[in-house]
Design brief:
- The chain is of the alpha/beta class and 121 residues long.
- It has a single domain, classed as Response regulator (Rossmann fold, 3-Layer(aba) Sandwich).
- Helix 4 links the parallel strand 4 and strand 5.
């Protein structure tokens, strides 16, 4: 069965890069443009793994993860944060919100796919 990855990022370029890397690795990719859209998409379609940015309009990545974890259907869905942020306090805040892992942009597509494989297993 093909695993589905939800990507949540306000940058079309980043969403496109993620789509290419993940689709080439055999994943079905669904996309959302911010945290609000991400919660709606996750509720409607579900996902096996989520990749989210932190800095987004309407609802940032922290709020998105917290909202996702508040839903009993997604309390254990793996969440990888993909962001330009490298601040230790923000990493800690993401962990406390329920993030599974943290990847700093720019990303290596092969390493990203490896991280998705690890958390989706």
């Amino acid at each position: 069965m093909t695993k589905t990855v939800l990507t949540v990022d306000d940058s079309r370029t980043m969403r496109d890069m993620l789509l290419i890397a993940l689709a080439d690795a055999g994943y079905k990719v669904i996309q959302a443009v911010d945290g609000v859209d991400g919660l709606e998409t996750l509720s409607a379609q579900g996902a096996d793994v989520v990749i989210t940015d932190i800095n987004m309009p309407r609802l940032d990545g922290f709020g998105f993860i917290e909202g996702m974890r508040a839903d009993p259907n997604h309390r254990t869905t793996p969440v990888l944060v993909l962001t330009t942020e490298s601040d230790a306090a923000k990493k800690q805040r993401a962990r406390e919100a329920g993030a599974t892992g943290w990847i700093v942009k720019p990303f290596d597509p092969a390493k990203l796919v490896d991280a998705v494989r690890r958390v989706a297993a």
